Amino acid sequence: MSELIVKPAPSPGPDGTLLTVTPESAGWEYVGFEVVKLEEGGHLRRETGENEVCLVLLSGRADVSTREGAWPGIGRRMSVFEKTPPYSVYIPDGDFYEVKALTPLELAVCAAPGRGSHPARLIGPEQVGVETRGYGNLERQIHNILPEQEPADSLLVVEVFTPNGHWSSYPPHKHDRDALPEESLLEETYYFRVQPERGFAMQRVYTDDRSLDETLIVKDGEAVLVPRGYHPVSAPPGYDVYYLNVMAGPSRTWKFHNDPDHAWIMTKPKEA
């Protein structure tokens, strides 16, 4: 199996943790990511330490509290494939968060270095930017949960719905050079859900010199590490694909570079 694929545990750990990516396990510097599954009445409490955290309620409802804020009864969708924007909570470094599941809960814990610049806050569905990107079989739905226009120190968080038979993160693009204003260096994780669950997604991760060149078969509940290179995704016919992206790097801005061999695809053909 590719070292870029992170598989979930067979069952959640004592605190509900199902999947974990740390900077140490990924061999990089900024991004941490976890998936926690709690049964109704389950409880999670953690310190943020030196990281800021964005909790994304992938599915289910919960009470969430931090040192200076509490948000009871948040959450609406029971499946990511309802395609409605999620509830999320931003928590700065040097704080804590406490989560009590009111229903079965799937929670994404997105982390990156913080500087204590912003208070904890709720990010409600109405604050999530929704857009349709691409055309034809490049079309996909985007939920901008924590984009660069919204306050945070390091984190960028977005979720993408790719219909069956479509491509996303396409044309292939990369953001692996600290060369602003042309390109930013951002590590990235992809957390995949597939419907029906027996299906799969395909993702290619490759560099210009092909020192990294892998084509991955990704199953429901798995994550992919993108340390560098281009990283397009394909949803096979019959299987809708969801993924949650977490990005962070030395500068909190998303400036990408399209693969020059395929950049022409973004020029939509004129109607006859």
Automatic annotation (TrEMBL):
Its EC number is 5.3.1.30. Pfam families: KduI. SUPFAM superfamilies: RmlC-like cupins. It comes from the Bacteria. It is an enzyme of class 5 (isomerase). Keywords: Isomerase. GO terms for molecular function: 5-deoxy-D-glucuronate isomerase activity. This is 5-deoxy-glucuronate isomerase. It comes from Paenibacillus gyeongsangnamensis. The gene is iolB.
